[in-house]
Amino acid sequence: MVVRDSFTLEVKTSDNHSRYVEIADLFRKLFRDIDKLGTLEDIMDGSDYSVLEVPYWAWHEQLDAVREQLKSDSDKYALVWPLLRDQLHLCHALISRNAFTITPILPLVNAFPTFFEAPRRIYMSATIADDSEIIRTFDANPEPLKRALQSRSLAGISERMTLIPDLMSFSFKQDHIEKVIDWAAKNQKRWNCCSCIIG
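RE: above sequence
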C-alpha cells in the first residue's frame, strides 16, 4: 500500500475542486455513452459514494488532455508528477466524490535505478502471505522465493537481524559466521524472524 501511494496522484476536491471537475468532465461523454452519466454526476456532486473507473480506451484517448491539465498544476504534485508524467498510459483513472485518482496498474519501481538495477535486494515482511505479490510488484526473481528464510514461530513482534558477510566493511571469516550462528541458535527463543527473501 505504501509503495502504491508513492506512485498515486490525487486531484482532491478539497484542494483543487475546479481541476477535479475539468478532468472528470473530459470523460462525461464516455459515461453518457455507457449509461453511467447519472452515477458520474452524483459522484461529482458528492451524493454518491461509488467509485467509477475510467475505461482504458477512453483513458488512452484523453491522455494528452489529462497531461495538459496536470502539467499546469505540477507544482502541487511535485513528488509524484515526475514519476507518472511519461507513464500515464500504464495507469488506471478512478473518479470518487473526494478525488480524481491516477495510479499505475503496478508500481513503477523501475523509475528508481538504484533499486531496479541493484544486484541484490532483500524483501522483508511479517505480513505478506502471498509471495507472488513481491514478484509482481517488484519484478523479483521467483527462484529465491523457494528458499525464503522463515520463522518457525507465529510471533509477529520481535527483533530482527540480517547478516550479509559480502557487504561487511571488514573481513568476515568462516569461524566468525559459525560463532554468530551458534550464538543465535542458543538464543533462538529471543529471536522470531520475519520472512526474508534475498534475491
